Amino acid sequence: MRAGELITTDLQGRSGDETDIQRAYSVLEEVMDPEVPVVSVMDLGIVRDVDWADGHLHVVVTPTYSGCPATEYIETAIREALQGAGFAFPKVSQRLDPAWTTDWITGQGRERLKAYGIAPPVGSSDKRSLVSGVAQVTCPHCGGDETEQLSEFGSTACKALYRCKSCLEPFDYFKCI
Amino acid sequence: MTKYDDLTEFLLRLGDSALVHAQRLCEWTGRAPALEEEMGMMNVGLDLVGQARNWYEYAAERIGDGTDADTLAFRRDERAFRNLLLVEQPNGDFAVTMTKQFFYDAWQYHLLTALQHSGDERIAAIATKSLKEVTYHLRRSSQWIERLGDGTDESHQRMEKAIDTVWRFTFEMVEANDSESALASSGVIPSLADLPEQWLATVNDVFRNATLTVPDAPSTFYLSARTGMHTEHLGILLAEMQFLQRAYPDASW
Ligand SMILES: [Zn+2]
Q1: CATH 3.30.300.130 domain residues, chain A
Q2: Which site among B26, B36, B43, B146 would you substitute to test the A interface, given the most A Cβ atoms closer than 10 Å to its Cβ?
Q3: ipTM of this model?
Q4: Chain B CB contacts of A63 below 8 Å
Q5: Which option is the CATH number for A3-94: 3.40.50.620, 3.30.479.20, 3.30.300.130, 3.30.870.10?
Q6: pTM here?
Q7: Sheet with A170-174, edge to edge strand ranges
């Protein structure tokens, strides 16, 4: 038995309801991605489910990339944020299926990425756009359309490195997967 | 020598190939020809370590007795590894590295495409996830093969030499296998009968654009990942990769 399991419910005997779930979601809106600290786990679309079971809040997340080093960090951050909000022993688990897609990044998430200097994914993640050539990406700095890919991989696996031909600035592009 | 059931052996083949290939990529840290390429190789390696972990976790659950993904990666000897002979080969120059990468990516791409439709849901989920990443890996390595093959005289010549060096290990990717056929007939995975042809078609397409010649089909020889009979290079790679966990078992930070 792990330490937290001595606590039989998250809310001192009171069973959780829909209001608590909504409250949990608003906590999750504030849990930021460690590598792109302007987007939350909700913006990224990696929270797949929030529900009650056996007196505990259960949060299901999906990893962005198989080897994403932020996955464990994010799970811990979610647990700590929920504990800070009064959920005594929330449980966080991982689900692979269905696989995460950049289509799940919210409109707000895309705006936040752009404001941070990262071009959001272009188009939808169907197989065609993956195999066929390089996406037409807009520069997040000046809005110019004349950009070129420098490398298929940028500072992290989820990004490619681009350069703007108008303002000449390099920038990260959040790849469509 | 422990030989596991067909499915566990198959999972180890996938996991070990990803991990050993990733370990080779790490050797380029600080030595790649350009910063962009270094980041590219490290990110591909990271994807593969993640994929290896997913396959290992499944294999470990099947093996039981307290085995976990770390035990499989760091506490097994050379003879227990089921990785393709190709991926344990030394990096050589950038042409050899990219040739290995391309042959492996093309194999992963077609294999994972098939495995997405596995009867075993866990395999299907890991394959679907991994394929998204591998599609980018294959796109990158194909572009490099074309750029190097159809580049300067020097790069073309080095590509020919690289193909010469590693082609003989590709027999493993195109040989039929009884235990995989058994897994397919029991509905765990789809039939992989078309895999050799698909792999070769991708190699043909990319080599044509790269002005490179595809050699004759390689012949099987006595070494085989399936029996744990590796080339002399794997032991040295493992000695480095496993050092910490061997010297300080259960070390953590
Ligand atoms: Zn610009």
Answers
A1: 3-94
A2: B43
A3: 0.82
A4: 50, 129
A5: 3.30.300.130
A6: 0.91
A7: A118-119, A170-174, A159-164, A147-151
